[in-house]
């Protein structure tokens, strides 16, 4: 869609350049591969090297760790353009950058940063982030995975479920209960007692690899504890704040794709002797979709500028994630309706975005959770206690 609000005026030339180069990459290399990748339920691993070569992995980190010192708005625009292609590709980049490289950068020591981050930026090491468990989703404080201190390290026991990248990951950032509280660990795939299983039969995020992590007396040496991780939920929640911010932009990328497809289709498709775009009810839907995209673009941009000044409080990020996911899902459903029967075909893409957004609205905090985070901020009363 065109830049109707002239928001490009608010972007630097570097931000526009990075957005446009990712847009071009997605149009050329990602979208053509998608119907088949989605149908077969396989994450195209060739995308890993491509996004690494574009400098998109850990792009906000300093250069000495393989990053590009990029700002929050540039990262947001990248997420938007990746998810214009598919939520699975944006998920891959979010998890690698915000949920794996960020905790190592923020809570790791210098040895860990130098050992892992440059290789992760080059796409040579893939990460996953294990917080959710079979019995602990919205309430990660109730996790049952434990880390018991033993000579020279820790013994991990438990499992993590619904973990993006788990089947293809070389390492996992795992959050486990120690006698002192929840701490973060870097668990490498070769560590004895660590196994992974792919989750099959997903009807959403099919072009993404999702799995389970299992720890059976898995020995993790002391050097793989993230020393700066606090003894509570603050450290994993701070990683979620990074990823939720990217999702606010990403979900709108999927919404923009759906809007563009629906608008083109409505102008072409003839019924009752004229283009369906000429019908008032179709125009109302298009106008509603367009309005929500414009509103979310402004919100995301302002959140990004606040984040660049370290002023984007977690409840504001919740506002952005909640709004974008809710509106993007509505837009995808409206687009699917405008396409009639063609709307259910992978060839027209909107059903894929719609199904993906059913995951995106659930992961990284459900719609309810984000309402309650905002509710706590507004009222001073926690609904979680
Ligand atoms: P609460 O008492 O509010 O906070 C506990 C401590 O954490 C601090 N804190 C934060 N710090 C940084 N960023 C944030 N967003 C923070 N939110 C809270 C807080 O200040 C406090 O610190 P301290 O020092 O006082 O201890 O915690 P609570 O237990 O009331 O929180 C409840 C709740 C529901 C908000 C939280 O548990 C939550 O967000 N639940 C949702 C779980 C979730 O989002 N899981 C996502 C798993 S990862 C994932 O889905 C990846 S998908 C990836 C992809 O494919 O793209
Ligand atoms: P539950 O917490 O059981 O919630 C079920 C329903 O109850 C929801 O509607 C929820 O909003 C509602 N609910 C729960 N508590 C409350 C409350 N207090 N008030 C009102 N309503 C409430 N996790 C990771 O750790 N790493 C990953 O990489 C990852 N990737 C994922 C990829 C996919 C494709 C999916 C689908 C999930 C992924 N997740 C990941 C897990 C995701 O974060 C959780 O699914 C999410 O946090 C919700 O947890 P749950 O599924 O257990 O739902």
Please explain how this structure is put together:
50% of the residues lie in helices and 15% in strands. The chain is of the alpha+beta class. It has three domains: 7-121, Butyryl-Coa Dehydrogenase, subunit A, domain 1 (Orthogonal Bundle); 127-229, Butyryl-CoA Dehydrogenase, subunit A, domain 2 (Beta Barrel), CATH 2.40.110; 234-379, Butyryl-CoA Dehydrogenase, subunit A, domain 3, CATH 1.20.140.10. A four-stranded antiparallel β-sheet has the order 2-3-7-6, covered by helices on one side. A three-stranded mixed β-sheet has the order 1-4-5, with helices on one face. Strands 8-9 form a two-stranded antiparallel sheet. The protein starts with 12 loop residues before the first helix and ends in a 6-residue tail after the last helix. The relative contact order is 0.12. The mean pLDDT is 97. The structure holds 3-thiaglutaryl-CoA and flavin-adenine dinucleotide. 3-thiaglutaryl-CoA binds next to helix 5, helix 7 and helix 11. Flavin-adenine dinucleotide is lined by residues 95, 129-132, 137-138, 162-164, 205, 210, 359, 362-364, 366, 368-369, 372, 383-384.
Strand content: 15-25%
Helix content: 40-55%
Tell me the domain tally: 3
Sketch the major β-sheet: 4 strands, antiparallel
Report the order of strands and helices. Answer: HHHHHHEEEEEEEHEEHHHH
Detail the poorly predicted runs: none
Mean pLDDT: 97
CATH homology superfamily name of the largest domain: Butyryl-CoA Dehydrogenase, subunit A, domain 3
């Amino acid at each position: 869609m065109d830049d109707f609000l002239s928001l490009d005026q608010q972007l630097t030339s570097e931000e526009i350049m990075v957005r446009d180069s990712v847009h071009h990459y997605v149009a050329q290399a990602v979208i053509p591969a998608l119907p088949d990748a989605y149908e077969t339920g396989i994450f195209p691993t060739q995308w890993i090297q491509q996004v690494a070569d574009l400098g998109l992995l850990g792009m906000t980190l300093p250069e000495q760790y393989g990053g590009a010192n990029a700002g929050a708005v540039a990262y947001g625009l990248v997420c938007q353009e990746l998810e214009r292609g598919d939520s699975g590709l944006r998920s891959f980049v979010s998890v690698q950058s915000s949920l794996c490289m960020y905790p190592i950068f923020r809570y790791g020591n210098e040895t860990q940063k130098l050992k892992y981050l440059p290789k992760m930026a080059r796409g040579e090491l893939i990460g996953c982030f294990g917080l959710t468990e079979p019995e602990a989703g919205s309430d990660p404080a109730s996790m049952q995975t434990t880390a018991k201190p033993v000579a020279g390290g820790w013994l991990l026991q438990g499992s993590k479920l619904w973990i993006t990248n788990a089947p293809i990951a070389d390492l996992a950032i795992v959050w486990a209960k120690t006698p002192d509280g929840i701490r973060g660990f870097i668990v490498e795939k070769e560590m004895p007692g660590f196994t992974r299983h792919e989750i099959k039969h997903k009807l959403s995020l099919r072009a993404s690899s999702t799995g389970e992590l299992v720890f059976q007396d898995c020995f993790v040496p002391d050097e793989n504890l993230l020393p700066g991780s606090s003894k509570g939920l603050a450290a994993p929640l701070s990683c979620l704040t990074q990823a939720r911010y990217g999702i606010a932009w990403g979900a709108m990328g999927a919404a923009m794709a759906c809007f563009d497809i629906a608008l083109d289709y409505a102008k072409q498709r003839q019924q009752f002797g004229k283009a369906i775009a000429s019908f008032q009810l179709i125009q109302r839907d298009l106008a509603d979709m367009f309005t929500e995209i414009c509103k979310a673009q402004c919100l995301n941009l302002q959140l990004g500028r606040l984040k660049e000044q370290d002023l984007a409080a977690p409840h504001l990020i919740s506002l952005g994630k909640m709004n974008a996911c809710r509106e993007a899902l509505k837009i995808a459903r409206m687009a699917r309706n405008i396409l009639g029967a063609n709307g259910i075909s992978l060839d027209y893409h909107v059903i894929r975005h719609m199904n993906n957004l059913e995951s995106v609205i659930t992961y990284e905090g459900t719609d309810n959770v984000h309402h309650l985070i905002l509710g706590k901020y507004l009222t001073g009363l926690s609904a979680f206690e």
